[in-house]
Design goal:
Elements: H1 3-14, H2 19-31, H3 33-38, H4 40-44, H5 47-51, E1 56-65, E2 71-82, E3 88-94, H6 100-116, E4 122-128, H7 137-151, E5 160-163, H8 170-184, H9 204-222, E6 231-234, H10 239-250, E7 254-259, E8 263-266, H11 273-282, H12 290-293, E9 298-301, E10 312-314, H13 324-332, E11 337-339, H14 348-356, E12 360-362, H15 364-367, H16 369-384, H17 390-414, H18 421-439
Parallel strand pairs: 3-4, 3-5, 6-7, 6-10, 10-11, 11-12
Antiparallel strand pairs: 1-2, 2-4, 7-8, 8-9
Bound molecules: NADPH dihydro-nicotinamide-adenine-dinucleotide phosphate and 2-oxoglutaric acid.
2-oxoglutaric acid is lined by residues 89-91, 113, 163, 165, 192, 343, 368, 371-372, 375.
């Protein structure tokens, strides 16, 4: 049995039931076999065994009182996975599905993603099984304050810097930041995605979606093609999906579909993004409300968004939202490119289909890295006590995404798998972290 297989077997034995973590670790580690062969020193230093074990894993009680005066209890998590190249960095997810396996898969992916940005940030992730949907602002605030009342002692501008993810946007970051400041009496860059009036960065809100489209455009450019005139399907209708749609439209693509967890809309004439923003960002409504105004558009309940024929597919909702059958349908319908705004939206089977059929395909840890990269730019601005213009941040973001594309293509080519950006992203992301871990000794 190979070293990689032994590490994976032990990981599954030690972490039973954490199926998303098993999936993410399997995807990464199996592509590292040739790197391990070339670098036997990694095995001697038990580098993979250390890499798959979080440096620290926190689980805590989050009690709060709802509007009816009832006491509610949620579970909070923060997994501080790897600090070899910088302070732990990664979002917080508030969603009823959250459990330790999901937080660990996200934290593990974050290690390699953050490395690919070229910026000094380690990997971490956190969250809670709290569901902000249907809660009043007052309830969300009560929850966030209780969550931070425990979390504050573990984080800091130079140790661990959380941000948003599913269910955590500007409102939640504001409440979390207010409570941190109140408890610690420190005004510091302990969270990113902050509001513009209290240390946030211009373009952070847009960054994940914009970055996704920048790297997609770069991949098309490398194939002498552009996004102009392409038919695009985007899943989700949250932060990433909205700003991916915006940038794709600005570059001349026609986005025809969006979704949420209830269903999907198809608008043959192209999505009216101002309407989507009004529904999702202002009203916090459901995507089906779109067809009340755009009466020529269709709404379909449930799954099925990947049955729409398109040139470019941008999954931007959640993990495992695109399975093997969905991939085969997209390929049969002529998809040219798939780039992941969400974290691990494709199952291992779907990924295999894209690679086998030579579809241009960029996995999430490379394609959605623009969000965390811009968070690191927010930290830099806070450290300098300066704010850069939107254009300056956006320029830097574009440079970072082009550089990520270069790194993943070069690593894929160097390991005899040109165009395989799953392997390219894993190897390029891994090597920097692995070398830093080797330099720092057995810790
Ligand atoms: N925000 C960021 O900067 C970054 C986010 N990501 C990843 O992008 C993805 C989307 O995040 P973000 O846009 O921030 O989150 P939001 O909470 O803003 O939006 C999430 C969207 O995905 C849908 N969704 C969530 N869970 C499910 C589910 N189980 N089934 C179907 N649809 C679902 C939501 O629908 P509904 O409203 O019905 O729940 C909503 O439309 C996640 O995978 C996240 O990890 C990656 C990098 C950075
Ligand atoms: O901005 C950040 O720190 C984290 C973003 C995030 O959670 C992610 O990249 O998945």
């Amino acid at each position: 049995m190979s070293y990689v297989s032994e590490v994976l077997e032990e990981l599954i034995r030690k972490n039973p039931g954490e199926k998303e973590f098993h999936q993410a670790a399997t995807e990464v580690l199996t592509t590292l076999e040739p790197v391990i062969e070339k670098n036997p020193q990694f095995q001697k230093a038990a580098l993979l065994e250390r890499l798959v074990e979080p440096e620290r894993q926190l689980k805590f009680r989050v009690p709060w009182v709802d509007d009816k005066g009832n006491v509610q209890v949620n579970v909070g998590y923060r997994v501080e996975f790897n600090s070899a190249i910088g302070p732990y960095k990664g979002g917080l997810r508030f969603h009823p599905s959250v459990n330790i396996g999901i937080i660990k898969f996200l934290g593990f992916e974050q290690i390699f993603k953050n490395s690919l940005t070229g910026l000094p940030i380690g990997g971490g992730k956190g969250g809670s099984d709290f569901d902000p949907k249907g809660k009043s602002d007052n309830e969300v605030m009560a929850f966030c304050q209780s969550f931070m009342t425990e979390l504050y002692r573990h984080i800091g501008a130079d140790t661990d810097v959380p941000a948003g993810d599913i269910g955590v946007g500007g409102r939640e970051i504001g409440y979390l930041y207010g409570q941190y400041k109140r408890i610690t009496n420190r005004y510091e860059s302990v969270l990113t995605g902050k509001g513009l009036t209290y240390g946030g960065s211009l373009a952070r809100k847009e960054a994940t979606g914009y970055g996704l489209v920048y790297i997609t455009a770069e991949m098309l450019r490398a194939h002498n093609d552009t996004l102009a005139g392409k038919k695009v399907v985007v899943s989700g209708s949250g932060n990433v999906a909205i700003y991916a749609t915006e940038k794709a439209q600005q570059l001349g693509a026609k986005v025809v579909a969006l979704s949420d967890s209830n269903g999907w809309i198809y608008d043959e004439e192209g999505i009216d993004l101002a309407l989507v923003k009004e529904i999702k960002e202002v009203r916090r409504g459901r995507i089906k409300e779109y067809v009340q105004t755009r009466t020529n558009a269709e709404y379909h309940e449930g799954k099925g968004i990947w049955t729409i024929p398109c040139d470019v597919a941008l999954p931007c909702a959640t993990q495992n939202e695109l399975n093997g059958d969905d991939a085969r349908t997209l390929i049969k319908n002529g998809v040219l490119a798939v780039a992941e705004g969400a974290n691990m939206p494709s199952t291992l089977e779907a990924t295999e289909e894209f690679l086998k059929n030579k579809i241009m395909y960029i996995p999430g840890k490379a394609a959605n890295a623009g969000g965390v990269a811009t968070s690191a730019l927010e930290m830099s601005q806070n450290a300098q006590r300066l704010s850069w213009s939107f254009e300056e941040v956006d320029q830097k973001l574009q440079g970072i995404m082009v550089n990520i594309y270069r790194q993943i293509s070069e690593a894929a080519a160097a390991y005899d798998a040109p165009g395989n950006f799953v392997l390219g992203a894993n190897i390029a992301g891994f090597l920097k972290v692995a070398n830093a871990m080797m330099d720092q000794g057995i810790v």
